[in-house]
Design brief:
Order of helices and strands: EEEHEEEHEE
Largest sheet: 6 strands, mixed
Distance between the termini: 10 Å
Number of helices: 2
Helix content: 10-25%
């Protein structure tokens, strides 16, 4: 899995002019699924996301996790994370998992994360508009194939 993690003070996803999911303080996840992903990749991603200490403590140091600050997650599927840009100017999008596998892993990820904090989502495969206020800014790339 490739997951872009952004620390946000607020984020929302809109589909056809209607808000599908929104959070205040927490993490925006842009989630891409690799065709070779396994249950171990999923478990690793969940563990890392909920335990990442990227929120400020009393001294202003990034020392607190999402759970420590009572944050939420907005999770958005993002197959374009596997775009191949090596040839030409038009990206190839054949590096990600097939939609049926990607949907299953995306939904399983969200379900697993919901055991730790509130999780809002976009709609898998929909044309979505994502709005966010990146806090910091803090943006981290989590790649379960290259931990």
């Amino acid at each position: 899995m490739k997951i872009i993690i952004q620390r946000v003070s607020q984020a929302s996803v809109t589909i056809d002019g209607k808000i599908a999911g929104a959070i205040d303080k927490g993490l925006l996840l842009l989630v891409g699924v690799d065709p070779a992903d396994t249950a171990a990749d999923l478990a690793y991603a969940v563990r890392k996301i909920v335990q990442l200490r990227i929120f400020a403590d009393q001294a202003g140091k990034m020392n607190l996790s999402l759970q420590d600050v009572g944050g939420a997650i907005l999770s958005v599927s993002q197959f374009t994370l596997f775009a191949d840009t090596k040839k030409g100017n038009r990206p190839a999008f054949n590096g990600g998992a097939r939609p049926e596998l990607a949907r299953r892993y995306y939904e399983d990820l969200n379900q697993a994360l919901s055991h730790y904090c509130p999780v809002a989502t976009g709609v898998f495969g929909a044309d979505m508009q994502v709005s966010l206020v990146n806090d910091g800014p803090v943006t981290i790339v989590l790649d379960t194939k290259n931990p």
